[in-house]
Protein 1
Amino acid sequence: MNITHIVGARPNFMKVAPVMNALRERKSVVQTLIHTGQHYDVNMSDVFFQQLGLPTPDVNLSVGSSTHAKQTAEIMMRLEPVVAERQPDIALVYGDVNSTVATALVCAKLGVQIGHVEAGLRSFDRTMPEEINRLVTDQLADMLFTPSIDGDENLRREGIAPEKIFRVGNVMIDSLVRLLPLAKKTCVDGVPERYALVTLHRPANVDDGARLKGILQSLLEVNRDLAVVFPAHPRTRQRIADFGLNSGQLCLLDPVPYIEFLGLQSRAAVVITDSGGIQEETTHLGVPCLTMRENTERPITVSLGTNVLVGGDPGKLRAEFSRVLSGNAKKGAVPPLWDGHAAERIADILVRQAVRQSSAAR
Ligand code: UD1
């Protein structure tokens, strides 16, 4: 069986690594890795490949940054001849970035089967580009691997046939489980012993000058009680400069490699973020997470985990932060199947499915 993995952006890399590892153990499988080049900075891409033990991509489409339409279209144009030539039995796509939806569109029209890893998540907020990517990808996918039961329910409600849906758990947690022992031994220069870890990059938070200014003010307030450590996405750093904003005494860092960032999360008193994956990682680590969004496509991190949605309301952030300082932060549990073995379940299903198809063809 010929499996092609297509990835492009930072949050894809820790998801593809465990799936490639699990499939490497299956003798009947030949794997190809395609990088769209959506993320291209050394510290947004290369360093993740090294730390996760990913092979050098067989193909790099080097699309780079642009508007959503241009970036998606560029990926489609460059990917189409590659997929047409290689004709994989199945293309595996990950998460909800522009590379995911672009690949799904190309493969669906070339008649190549698509497997979507991290299917079924919904924020029900179509102003988020990722929500559009999730909706389209799931409609086109032939096999939908979900991380939690809400994913199955969303897909069934949208009319996806139940036999296409496989609840396997969370592959991102597979990477966390594997590399956490190493992560705990790392340290990052300039980071104090007790701190609040911050990441922000969503357009809704950083592309509006007034909103970003308000957020920085709230973080400066937090910083009076607890040092704020803020590895900034290139987009965020750019916006702070564009709007002429002042990050004052906040400890702004360049993006941190995967293993060091896991270490920073595991030791943080609290994490303040607008990322998707970090809501999941903090839930697994049992670290309090305050999410600066009005909604989440990962509701299980709120219902079971340590996540609290504070939206853009500085009052709510302050109140939840006080709970953390007074030792009363929300406690949580690890969701079912977030056990470090999700990728093995995916590999089992793919191989089983291939055997079924080849005996049906005979
Ligand atoms: C993308 C994903 C988002 C994910 C995030 C994680 C989409 C729609 N969004 O957002 O879901 O949470 O990745 O990081 O796919 N840039 C660099 N170097 C890079 C990559 C980007 O400097 O290696 C800068 C460029 O100025 C670019 C901007 O960051 O314009 C945004 O990059 P882009 O890939 O368009 O989206 P992200 O904000 O990274």
Note: Residues 290 and 330 are 10 Å apart (CA to CA).
Protein 2
Amino acid sequence: MNTNDEKMVILGGVPLHGEVKISGAKNSAVAVLVASILVKGKCVIENVPRVSDIYDLIGIIKSLGCEAGFVGDDVVEVDCTNIKTHVATGAAVRKIRASSYFMGALLGRLGRASVDLPGGCDFGVRPIDLHLKGFKALGAESDIEYGVVNIRADRLTGDTVYMDVVSVGATIDVMLAAVLADGMTVIDSAAKEPHVVDVANFLNSMGANIRGAGTDVIKIRGVKELHGGMFSVIPDQIEAGTFMIAAAATGGDVVVNNIIPKHMESLSAKLEEMGVGIDEYDEAIRVYVDKPELRRCNVKTQPYPGFPTDLQPQMLVLLTKAKGNSTMTENVWENRLQYVGELNRMGASITVEGGDMAIVEGGTPLTGAPVCAKDLRAGAAMVIAALMARGVTEIYNLKYIDRGYEDFEKKLKSLGAQITRRCVNPMPEVLKAAK
Ligand code: EPZ
């Protein structure tokens, strides 16, 4: 069934208890899969989450004449030795943001790329100017025709690329284009997100020479060829954060397993500031609430190691529970507070100022309502709100949530959540406009 035709039905008010295992990072896996295009040989990639963005990407990679597919629960094999085309176009390419990585990978491997302008969740303009600026510095020319980006280079030669804005996508894309280029490429003001480091580790394990990933300056010395091998994707920082916030929001006690606690520091610090209990272990964090009230706090999203924009909606939901007024400032995306109306429909009292700051009046109890997932992380936020709310919430537009959360309901159910998925028939009038 198409997930457009399904809804989640959640009976709120049950504190989450138990242990949950976090899947591989969606945003790392999507980049690693596309990076396999640069490799002559078989790449065996472990810890890949079964989410719709991954299935879409596998389909696109196969359409290039490569072999790709799941060979185990979380293992994907990709072999692009006999890649046949530099053209990646079609509905799947236009749907996901990670298809921007085909630009760098195809350019690096074949010297040219024709890729539909990438899609992704809609929270304002999602430009690719920095990607193209980076390719140009390496000697490539590009134009955009009928929504397709055409990039070509007789020869790619390393140079210094300064990123005017810290961009995960542009940092990874330029890295992909530079791996097989002549000489040294330097990316200055690079993104430091864990998945940028993971992609560099993947490429290095296949024979690339990349240094400095995880710092502001990444240096890539071009190599002649990459060889096949095995790689395991890091745990999903955002899925982990979503469960940590859900545990706190329901007043529960949850051990979030299979994570890298260092990646969670900005969130752990904010939760502790609010009075949430945090116990850190080597590869797990326990989150629990043993106080009657949570304290207010102000949060600002920033590139890593700052508070992640991809946890902004989930955290905003938690702030509705704190005593006093809190603020949330979105510094990465221009229009990522568009879901606030859905929360207010559940009884929250949140106002948005200047488009990028939400002021939350805390201590307003939420009640169940029909609501829409406006994008992937806003969808996760609706689930958390529903788990906190009195009564039943119905969440529509599940296609967004399914893009990035593996076994979301199953994992929540194992923690005690009262949650099911049902057929939508028909969608309530009140939501048609919101959709
Ligand atoms: C990645 O998107 C993630 N997606 C996003 O997660 C995440 O929100 C974002 O990084 C920021 O952390 C994937 O990894 C697939 P950016 P990306 O380039 O790479 C500006 C999720 O929910 N910019 O780091 O597209 C841009 O406008 C998704 O999993 C330019 O100006 O984000 C934004 O303000 C949603 N020019 C800022 O940089 C460019 O050429 C950061 O964007 C590119 C970006």
Note: The chain has two domains: 3-23+235-434, 26-232.
Protein 3
Amino acid sequence: MNRIAVYPGAFDPATKGHEDIINRSLHFVDRLIVAVAENTTKTSLFSLQERIELLNEIVGDDDRVEIRPFHGLLADFAHEMGAAIVVRGLRAVSDFEYEFQMALMNRKLRDDLETVFLVPARHLTFLSSSIVREVASLGGDVADLVHPTVLRALEGKFG
Ligand code: COA
């Protein structure tokens, strides 16, 4: 069986929380496509190209994982990729309502698409990209929350 999953997000930038979900997904999928959203409603710090490059550095040469940009509907992108699974991390109860809504909408759009929720490592449940961006922009230490490549990129942005 060739289980293909899509893990979507803005990844602005990817954090150790995202890395954790990628690694956990690889326990049950054969191929993981990390889908980097081209257009989100948020203003991004890193360009699409930068976000993709950072994820490529994080993933290294693991050929089970592929980083790809996407725009438009996630359900359509997953279908194009031949993926039957969408992976999402569920960090706290507050994530639930939005995630539930998204999973049901994606299923409405593509009935054969299943969403799988993964629970991140406990020490990473409080993380988000914006909190990392904010702390880094104010000179705080985020070294244990992001990959060294992302840390360098943040230093490049904020000095
Ligand atoms: N560890 C750390 N942080 C995490 C995390 C984890 N495991 N999982 C999520 N986060 C963070 C993200 O970094 C993001 O942080 P930020 O808001 O501070 O930047 C926040 O939690 C929200 O993440 P997420 O819900 O994944 O939002 P997103 O903006 O990264 O991605 C899309 C949302 C792109 C997946 C979604 O909007 C989408 O699918 N868009 C395509 C259009 C579409 O199909 N729309 C209909 C969907 S039903």
Note: The beta strands are 4-9, 31-37, 65-70, 85-89, 114-118.
